[in-house]
Structure formats: structure tokens, C-alpha cells
Amino acid sequence: MVYRPTARVLSVLELLQTHGQMTAQELAARLEVDARTVRRYITTLQDIGIPVDSEIGRYGGYMLRPGFKLPPLMFTDEEVLVLTLGLLLARRSKLAGAQTAVASALSKVERVLPLTLRERLRALVESTQMDDPLPLHGSSIEGGILANLSLAVRQCQQVRLGYRTRETTERIFEPYAVICHQEQWYAVGYCHLRHALRTFRLDRIERVILLDTRFTAPSGFDAMEYALSSFEAIPDRWNVEVLLDMPLDVARLRIPRELASLVQNEKGIRLRASIRDLNEMAHRLIALGCPLTVIDPPELRDELLAIAAQITQYAQEPAN
Fold first, then answer.
1. 269 in Cβ contact with 285 (< 8 Å)
2. Where residue 21 falls among pLDDT bands split at 50, 70, 90?
3. How far is the C-alpha of 283 from the C-alpha of 313, rounded, in Å?
């Protein structure tokens, strides 16, 4: 961890503002320093004109002078990231008036931020696309990677990525959008290493370096649609084709886009997928609770029959 005494001094100020009065020992424990260092931080605050009073005795401590007005908001880069993503998630909720409230909150936060953090906030708001709630159980990503990619999207700025698959490769990348789908973050854009459009998982990006070179994003490009289509095209062990007897809008709600493509025709909903585990697909199809016809592969019918036989056996087991 990089030692930044100015940040520690500001942390003391924030703690006193939040808790009212704190002892040197309490401040030291929060900041992971000793009491002597805390006293030095207090002296620094007093030297720059912050009225920090001290009270000697067993129940004494440090407190801000009553009536002193602190700046309304002070955020670190990480706090801006978390706050902005939280507001974007709230905007997607069904709470009445959420759209207006979020827009107002983002505007107020932006007005009190320094220019650098203000640019990061705008970049996150303008470049991030989400089709589901923010990841709760997916792989973690570095906040700086998300922030830098969002900034690059907003400014149409090329970046140098360190991307990890079996090994880490360096590549120049033109990010068109940052998206969130199915508890995972992705960046969509043009990869100069592969000379093609690519979708990269953010949890596999080890570093992002902003470059001075700019690019022009394609007009009308739908990054979310491209990413979902690319997920559908990934080949696997079994190519599955099934005809479903259910409304298309219901099927789309219950079948993830990255699992299968759905097309309406005169006979019903044609489901196509490329999967590794036929048994898992069979269970998913049974869970839909609708009539279906297996077109391909024949092995999928065998999986459905095996599951049906197992359920029949369970149902016929006598009660003890």
C-alpha cells in the first residue's frame, strides 16, 4: 500500500465529522497508526486552519469546533466508482421517481467534485451499459480498470491491455462500450492484435494504459447486442436444436441469451444452443414446463427419458 500522509490527514477530518468526538487511540486504530502519529495529523489540521479542539482527561479526545462547516463532499477515486455504480443500479430499479432522483443526485455529486474525478464520473455514466443487476457473485475486478476503460470509451481513446487467457498478451484496444451482463463485466471494441471486434472480460484484464491516440467509434454500434451474439456463437461439445411451445417473450425471460438463441417460426420457438453438458440442458428444458420437440441431437432425448424414469421411480417409492 502506498503511504499518503495527506490522505491520512483528510481521513482524520472525515472521522471527526462523522463521529463528533474520538480519542487518539480510536483514531489510531481506525488509521492503523500510533497515537503519536495521530497527534501529528491533528496538528497539521490545526496548522491549515481547521478548528480541531482537544479535551484532556479520561473521557477526552478530539472534536471539531461547533458550527464549523466542512466541504460538503470529499471522495476518493474508489468512492466515486462505488457511488456512481450504485446510482446507476438505482436508476434501473422500479422505484417511483428513481430516474429523476438519480439524475439529480449525480448532478449534485458532479458539481462538488474536482475536475479529474468529475471526468471519471461522467465517463462511467455515459459509457456503462447494464442489462441486469450489478455483479454480486461474479469474479472481482479492479476499480481502476473499470474507471480507465470507461474514460477511454468516453474520450474515444485507445488503450494498451494486458489480457490473461492461458498466458498474458499485450494488445492495443479501442473500447466502444463497457457492459454488465449475467454477473460479469465486459469491454467491447476493436482489437488491433486480432484485427477484429472482440469482447473482453474485465476480470481477465491485468492492466489498462491510456494512450494518446484516438479512434472513431462506428456509428450506431450496439455493443450489448454484439456481445450477446458473440456469446451465442461460442462452439461447444453438443449442438442442440429444440422446438418449444411457449410465447417468445416468456422464453426470453427464462432462457439466458448466452445459453441459447430463440427464433419464432410457424411451428413455435426454435431454440439453438452449443453446450457442454446435455444433462444440464435437459433439466433446463424440463424446468420450462412447456411442450417441446427435440430436433437434435438424439442423445438429448435419451437424457430426457432418463430423467423421466428417475422421477417416475421417486414417485413410486412407498412411504416408510
1. no
2. confident
3. 17
